[in-house]
Amino acid sequence: MNDFGAQDVDVVVIGAGQAGLSGAYHLRRAGFDPDRDFVVLDHAPRAGGAWQFRWPSLTYGKVHGMHALPGMELTGADPARPSSEVIGEYFSDYEEAFGLRVRRPVEVSAVREGEGGRLRVETSEGVYATRALINATGTWDRPFWPRYPGQETFRGRQLHTADYPGPEEFAGRRVVVVGGGASGTQHLMEIADYAAATTWVTRRPPVFREGPFTEEWGRAAVAMVEERVRQGLAPMSVVSVTGLPVNDAIRAARENGVLDRLPMFDRITPSGVAWDDGRVVDADVILWATGFRPVIDHLAPLRLRAPGGGIEIDGTRAVRDERVHLVGYGPSASTIGANRAGRAAVREIKALLSAPPLEVA
Fold it and tell me: Which residues on neighbouring strands pair with residue 127, listed in sequence order?
């Protein structure tokens, strides 16, 4: 504890999802001790990152591209179990196996410039003064709700993927699903078996990708996302670049008309949605599968945002502050990307902390 009432540590990790746990693992491997040299802060009530909040019908067998955390494989999981349970237990076992000592629930309200070249991390359990920061807060807590004329007049129910309860709750309802990503198509295909009617709308025609997802394709997609964040633009999702992989369920849904996409409606009415060409669809529910935005408002005092709306990063390092690393942001938002980014961030942080300390006037 220093003279200013803050606990001194070398590194604060914010978030204990895939990205945060990867960073914490690599910190341990690099010789940093939890609670003494670094702390991991997580606002969630239990282990599992955003996975713990996923809907029950998203079983582990339906999860696309879940990559194991570094140093410990996930084996023997029942594909019929909810992914929230499987991955939650896996993350919990991982934290225990490597002694990461995640502190939860801890809310981080702000990260500011502190004393002596340190960052001041203000949290619900007190203040930390840190020499470096790994921000791994993901996107789950910031669902994106588009605004359309008449939205407040709709007499039915509106909800977001973040609140999706599973398909049974939509039995007998007329449902409009908005969004062309993986969540939107999964919701739509589930709900279609229960709903009285479904309508699928997207801003752009969805791109379905046939064939295997090659390593070269993956590298090209990540490079496109990386270029955006390097320019300080708001990050886009990797799936928006790669397209939607076609499997047997997708093929069947396209053949039976479930994945019959309409362009985005122009306004919302009390009883549904409408287009300027005269088309009208009555609805009881509008489900917004419109994605999420990065949770980075707590970093606002550091003024890291570029004119393009995003945080300009080089690798994982914030260009405007070399002490700050964003893991699970932009090109590292996939599970395998988060693993690699955690390792890269720790490598740079170790080099930074080994440099001569800043002189304090």
Answer: 122
